[in-house]
Amino acid sequence: MGLYILTFVWLVLMVPLSAMAAPYAALVMDARSGKVLHARNADTRLHPASLTKMMTLYIAFEAVQNGEISMDTLVKVSPHAASEPPSKLGLRAGQKIKLRYLVRAAAVKSANDAATAIGEAISGSEAAFARRMNRTAKSMGMTRTTFRNAHGLTESGHLSTARDMSFLGRHMIYDYPQYYNLFSRKTADAGVRTVAHTNRRLLSSYRGADGIKTGYTRAAGYNLVASAERGRERIIATVFGGRSTASRNAKVAELLDLGFKRAPTRVALRKPRKPAYRGGGREPGVQVAKAAPRAAPGAKGKTLRVASAAVTRSLRPQARPVPEAQPDVAPLVAELQTEIDSVVKDVQLAVAAEAATAKPETTGPPPSRSKKPVLRPETVAIAAAAKLDVPTPARKAEVVTRLSTSGGRHWGINVGRYPNRFAAEKVLLKTALAETSTLDGTLRKVVKGKRGFDANFMGMTRDSAELACRRLQARQMSCFMVGPG
Question: How far apart are CA 176 and CA 79, in angstroms?
Answer without folding.
Answer: 31
